[in-house]
């Protein structure tokens, strides 16, 4: 048995309606973490499940005209079926209506009662049905769910939560990792501590006596009140042992799942051993709206029961539509099934008509996994739209990683008989590209040894990023750079580096054998590219398990799941890809998605939406009464009812739904402007010095697509004194531009600079290289020095100038 165990959980999802991509986001993050820990050799246990009790479920079932258990069965099944369809690798799926859970929760309640941590009393207060909690305030107070509370008077059992104010503060503020409850992100930690400390400022003004925690920070004693943990106003819950007119508070019931699923309360020795092995949990993943329940009530229950508390709680943000939280009650949700169906059928199945439904689903799941983790820094709110997802997919996966794999392996197939070629050995001195004591991360012409160093740098950064649950950083060069990690630490930037390496060394020319060393150099180039792909693929495996499995097999390396289990995906070494390995069957990895896919997904979500001829408004809510597969009841509270979905037509060229991804849809027809053939403004925007320029109409101007781009590669072109070869990142794609600015700018000072390019200029050949675009610059001084147009503040790549 492995020495290191790792136990993680998702939020336990409430069965008041069907799952949407907000649920998928948390579950995907958990699956990525679990896969990562398994490949590192940790004894990993991954739990998910459903929370099925409470007044809200009881009322929803009554509205649907079915018993609560049937309601819970149907909705819980929809969650489990979706996770299976997506290939989520959970180890257990707990339901709070299961006997193993019910019996263990009653044992926990009785244990707390026996220790005098629970007492019986009467309470009158304002109760939020939506959040299953009492809130402070007069009758009619608006609850956390945005709806008026109800006045409720009940005989309740109360938990002595007030006794744990200081122990909880000390638990969270402790410097000892073994005795601390780590809460991330920092904003969630501060929110919890503020709740526990009370209003220190107001208490100070009133002259009240404050106390000080172990960390030396003041708090208001008595700010934490006892908590009602039973209900008599409804019956759908776990009965209190010995007093069955009461049902146990839904949050005590639900939170206990993290222990009951691994054997707490069981009389079975095997289950008892399991609990001893895995508890305490190493990580609870939760939505930020339930942080208090997990970081105040849950550890307090455990402290009272003398059970170890979890090690960490990480709260993820919300998925937003129009700056509003995605919510079933608001109707602005998107079903994950829509994405699986659209990408699986319209993209994957069209490329691979013989593929199975499972293969199509797993491909669609990979697309969603990548987009959510790439676009939304974990712990923060983020936006979702179909347009943004398609744009990111095409830019990073189809045109980036997938294209790199296809072109590299196709050349190995053609020039090396489909076998990984041998390569020359490099000394350690040659491999060193970046001084570890120098954070500048400058780039020069990419060489094979530099790819080796860059691959190792990315691997080290991945390890650190995953430990901090910063999934977006290894996927996004911009975020990596902003985090001071260095632009080399992005896997997608490494994809670009390998592409640049191939272009610079032109293996298709080496294959012609112009010099005596061409064959050796060809082998070195192709081996270096393939070795880099193997590293990138191993690192991307937890995020893109299905796609990377295909790449791994095409590299001739077999089953990536077996490789992960055997520890072959950790501690990767340059040169680990063995020469002589026979490639597998080659095929495209990421077929390109057509822009029309966005409308297909909208139509799936909204089958009753007006046709285009009816000129729908840019955004609106439409009640969906049928799914794309089978009719469901009109009643939106029925567990089979599909959610209402916000329909967004998108605005070409603007940030899509607040996402980092930018729509690439063009306005007008492409322009065929010609650039000067030579001189300082060859293939850059040369502005005339004559002020009396011809006027143009607005319609002419809108044909020019000006975009924000960042220079990621800059290098001189042999025997061309005035030309530089640039690779620019437009956010949605990378492209090569040749520019005649070598007399005024060195390659080193250009890398990282944000500029303006004409993005819809027709490609043209110069010096045998294709140039696709034009830089925007001003002509300055008598010598006509070009001054590049740039920006003094942060702006997203791909943003359109208007």
CATH class of the domain at 420-565: Mainly Alpha
How many DSSP helices? 25
Backbone CA Rg: 30 Å
CATH topology of the domain at 420-565: Isoleucyl-tRNA Synthetase, Domain 1
Main sheet attributes: strand count, strand direction, barrel closure = 7 strands, parallel
In terms of structural class, how would the helical and strand content be classed? alpha/beta
Average residue-wise pLDDT: 79
Overall shape: it is elongated
SSE blueprint:
Elements: E1 5-9, E2 13-14, H1 21-39, E3 43-51, H2 55-64, H3 68-85, E4 92-95, H4 99-114, E5 118-128, E6 133-135, E7 150-159, H5 165-173, E8 182-184, H6 186-197, H7 200-205, E9 211-212, E10 218-219, E11 227-228, E12 230-231, E13 239-240, E14 243-248, H8 250-255, H9 257-260, H10 269-278, E15 283-287, H11 291-305, E16 312-316, E17 319-321, E18 324-325, H12 336-351, H13 357-375, E19 382-383, H14 386-415, H15 428-431, H16 448-467, H17 477-482, H18 491-505, H19 507-510, H20 518-540, H21 545-554, H22 560-565, H23 597-605, E20 619-622, E21 645-648, E22 684-685, H24 698-701, E23 706-717, E24 720-729, E25 734-739, H25 747-750, E26 754-758, E27 764-766, E28 769-771, E29 774-780, E30 785-788
